[in-house]
Design a protein that fits this description.
single chain, 101 residues, mainly alpha
Length: 101
């Protein structure tokens, strides 16, 4: 149906709502405007924010262990990665719709 109606959001919606694993994934399930998505991508891929995330990961991973005091930083990094994954899935929906006409 997703291909027939050029509605890739149906695939993502199925995964997000019907699959136990998909329910835990940061997936977009609705179509958004490409302009809004582009702005969010620019915001999410901000050099300063990515640099901070990189430095946090280096500090956490440097000794090969995640200590109690590093867990909050790791949770912050994982949350940011979920935000990035969500905006990427939004762009995939919009891109698929545009490319298929």
């Amino acid at each position: 149906m997703a291909d027939l109606y050029n509605a890739p959001e149906l695939k993502y919606g199925y995964c997000k709502n019907e699959c136990p694993i998909g329910r835990m994934m940061p997936l977009a399930t609705e179509e958004s405007s490409i302009e809004g998505i582009a702005l969010r991508i620019v915001r999410e891929f901000d050099y300063k924010g990515l640099r901070t995330m990189k430095e946090t990961l280096i500090e956490i991973a440097a000794d090969g262990k995640v200590t109690e005091d590093e867990k909050e930083g790791l949770m912050t990094v994982l949350s940011k990665l979920d935000e990035i994954a969500l905006v990427i899935s939004e762009m995939k929906i919009a891109g698929e719709k545009i490319l298929k006409g």
